[in-house]
Each structure stands twice: as C-alpha cells, then as structure tokens.
UniProtKB/TrEMBL annotation:
Organism of provenance: Seriola lalandi dorsalis
Main location: nucleus
Descriptive protein name: DNA repair protein
GO cellular component, one term: cytoplasm
Ranges for domain RecA family profile: 78-259
Superkingdom in the source lineage: Eukaryota
Record function comment: Involved in the homologous recombination repair (HRR) pathway of double-stranded DNA, thought to repair chromosomal fragmentation, translocations and deletions.
UniProt similarity note: Belongs to the RecA family. RAD51 subfamily.
GO biological process, alphabetically ordered: double-strand break repair via synthesis-dependent strand annealing; resolution of mitotic recombination intermediates; t-circle formation; telomere maintenance via recombination
C-alpha cells in the first residue's frame, strides 16, 4: 500500500518521500521518536501518520477485550437491537439497547427512567422487522409499586408513538398480557426471583426483556457504610446472575439506578461531565455494566398542543459501541420522544 491511498496531509506525504520511506509497512517498523527524527515532522503529525497507517491494516473496528471475553462481539456486529420506540433516541443508541449485556439507566427522581423502561416493555413485543423482539418483558420492582396506570396510558398511545407500525398490528397486540410483574422487598427475594422465576419465563420464550427498577434501592437499604465489603460481594453475585441470564437467553437487561451527589471532579468519570451527580453504587457496580446511560431534567420546558413537558437529556456515559453523546427528549402522554432543534 502506498501513501496516496491514505488520508494524509500533503505535507506529511512530502516529508515521507524526502525520508525515502516508500511503504506503509516501513512506518510500523519504526518508533515514533525515530519517525520524528527521520522526517522532521511534529509529534502531532507523527500521531496522525501512525493512526492512518494502523487503520489501513485493520479490517474491522476495534472490539473491547471485555466484549471478546464474554463472546458478545457477534451480537454487537450483527446489529440486533431493541428499539426505544423513538427514531431520535434510537439514532443516539445506534438502533436501541443491545441484545447481549447489561444496560444501566440512571437519573434523579422524576427524570424519566421508569417512563423509558415501560416504553421498552411495549417495544419488545413488536416483531423484529419493527425493531422489537416479538416477546414479553419481566419487570422487577424493588421500590415502589408497579405503575400500571401509566403503562395503560402508554398502551393507548402506541398508535401515536409508533406511527411506523400498522394500526392493525397495534390493535391486536395484547400488551398488558405480556408484561410480567415481580416485586422484591429484599435481596433474598430478588435472588430467588432471578434464579427461579425469571429463567423459567425466559426458557419458555415468554419474555425477552428483563427490567430491574431499581438496582440501588436494596443495596442501599440493607447495608451500612461499614458493610461495604459484604455489599460488594452481594453486588457481584447479583450482576453475575444478570449477565448469565442475558448471555444464555440473548436477552437485553435494563437496570434502573439512582444517583448520588458528586463531591470531586474525579467522580465525573462515572457520569456525564455536565452533571453534578453520578450513578449510585460506585466502581463496584460501574464495572459490571456494558452500557451506562443517564437521563436528567433540563431547565427549559416544551409545549405541544395542550401538553407541556420539562426538557430531558438522555446521555451515553460509556458503551463499547457508542460515542459519548446525548439527545434532548420530552415525556408526552404517549411516551418519551426525542426533541430535535426544529421543535
């Protein structure tokens, strides 16, 4: 491969010719400092050269080691996703939630976490050609009672939210019959639910989405500050169960999480740089999730007809296949929709 096939500044190409370096392979055999000495290029130019050269030999995008270890690379590359139910939010997530792995959605009270989770419980029931998984959802509540009235309202609003789906398909789908609700008041009952009842639903093909709302509630209430070691052990056992279910049954797992105040900027690595809060449970939990999303309320409001909603912003904190980005959104009677700059 010659230099003309790479996207390089003409000045860099000229320096390479003066140094009598004829092939891309020669660059990979020389250290960065030696390249600077041979070509007279700046450190920034050398970095651009090395990046372009390495990319020319890479046939596929890089895959994180953790993803390879868990065998998730095929699912990430296959593009199988669970749609959120909104084109703008799906665009942010490159199609929706990945089928393999644990996704965390954190945010303050009233930010819209449960709204999105309920919306996904309906989206999963559509056929795969409409970016669903043609199955039901199991929703585990660890704090409040299940918001059945809001779910019924979202069901009534499906024809408005999902204009891409034929009304006849929406009308004949028995949405409420395919949402299985569990309540777990303590860690023991949660573990029993995840180890016995949920696998049975998954094995029978009755569900293809697992939601835990919320993951922080029980771990915060059952352990004191001095019990951090035992709490982390229980947390790892819990996350191991979630990963096992996700991998064995190719099921997206969504964990709703609470937030905690940030007191030093070093903690911002766990949450959005623009926020003064961070997802709860610290690094022990952060290392167990594949995708971390965060939703927060903004200052402004937006009106549409006779409805008014506080602006939200859904942000990607980290993911192996997503850029760190965000999308404004609003909560309407029919569900959560992204807000474009023209709205």
């Amino acid at each position: 491969m010659n230099w003309e096939q790479l996207e390089l500044n003409p000045r860099i190409r000229a320096a390479l010719r003066r140094a009598k370096m004829k092939s891309v392979r020669e660059v990979l055999c020389v250290s960065g400092l030696d390249l600077q000495r041979l070509t007279g290029l700046s450190r920034c130019d050398i970095q651009q050269l090395l990046t372009a050269t390495a990319s020319s030999y890479r046939s596929h995008p890089p895959v994180p080691a953790l993803v390879l270890h868990r065998g998730e690379c095929l699912r990430l590359e296959s593009g199988l996703r669970l749609s959120v139910g909104c084109p703008l939010l799906d665009e942010l997530l490159r199609g929706g939630l990945p089928v393999g792995g644990v996704t965390e959605l954190s945010g303050e009270s009233g930010a819209g976490k449960t709204q999105l989770a309920l919306q996904l419980c309906l989206s999963v029931q559509y056929p795969t050609r409409y970016r669903g998984l043609d199955s039901g959802a199991v929703y585990i509540c660890t704090e409040d009672s299940f918001p059945i009235r809001r779910l019924q309202q979202l069901i009534r609003g499906q024809s408005c939210l999902r204009s891409d789906i034929p009304p006849s398909l929406i009308s004949r789908t028995q949405f409420s019959d395919r949402v299985y609700i569990e309540h777990a008041a303590d860690l023991d009952s949660l573990q029993v639910c995840l180890s016995q009842r949920v696998p049975l639903l998954l094995a029978r093909g009755l569900v293809r989405l697992l939601v835990v709302d919320s993951v922080a509630a029980l771990f915060r209430s059952e352990f004191q500050a001095d019990d951090w070691l035992e709490r982390n052990k229980q947390l790892l056992t819990f996350s191991s169960t979630l990963h096992h279910l996700s991998q064995e049954f190719s099921t997206p797992v969504l964990c709703i999480n609470q937030v905690t105040d940030v007191f030093n900027r070093a903690d911002h690595s766990l949450g959005p740089l623009s926020s003064n809060v961070s997802p709860a449970l610290g690094l022990a939990w952060a290392n167990q999730v594949m995708v971390r999303l965060m939703i927060r309320r903004l200052q402004g409001t937006i009106a549409r007809g006779d409805q008014c909603s506080a602006l939200r912003r859904l942000e990607v904190v980290f993911a192996p296949h997503l850029a760190r980005d965000g999308q404004d959104a609003a909560v309407w009677s029919e569900g959560v929709r992204g807000v474009s700059s023209s709205d």
